[in-house]
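Session log. Operator J.P. requested a structure for one protein chain; no other inputs attached. Running the standard single-chain path with token output.
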Amino acid sequence: MKRDEELRQLVIDELEFEPSVDASRIGIAVGDGIVTLSGHVPTYDQKCAAERAALRVKGIRGIAQEIHVMYPGTPQTADDQIAKRALDIIAWNVAIPQGAVQVKVQDGWVTLTGSVPWQFQRDAAMSSVRRLSGVRGVNNQIDITPHVHAADVKATIQAALHRNADVDAAAIRVDVDGNNKITLNGNVKSWAGRAAAERAAWSIAGVKSVDDRLSVG
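Structure written below.
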């Protein structure tokens, strides 16, 4: 119980330290190392920032995200307006291939579909859209088109892990199936190390999914 109380205070401190989040709107509870975030924020991007801030705290093992996006004092943006803005901002992003991403909006929830060759392009589309006014959530269903062989993917990821100061590559096992799905097993010392291992896996062109089974601690 005492450890959870200490973790809760650390999460509070981290949220207050994060300039993009209004911590006064967010409730925080911690049980057995799992943090629950509740309350409401004015944008979906702020909701994501609060989640990232909580996961930066050493000792947090997981998160229950119950924050709601609310737009007090302003009318809800129509779905067709959100869709047009989303398509425009994706078209303006030079990292995303033209015409590769499609947008559907229902009740403020944006669904992204299409196909791109790199994970960073998929992330770029998600990052662009979630900052738009009126967006209450984003469902990223953009596919990654495979272009490489499984053996090449595995060797490249293992080399990247060995170069990363936040990760003990020897403690991580990388498995790749014929559909370029990556499975990570083993142990890391922190959430930062786990995130670094995931980034290494996603940084390879053609990787379609990453199953992160790494334990923290």
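Operator note: The two ends are 18 Å apart (CA to CA).
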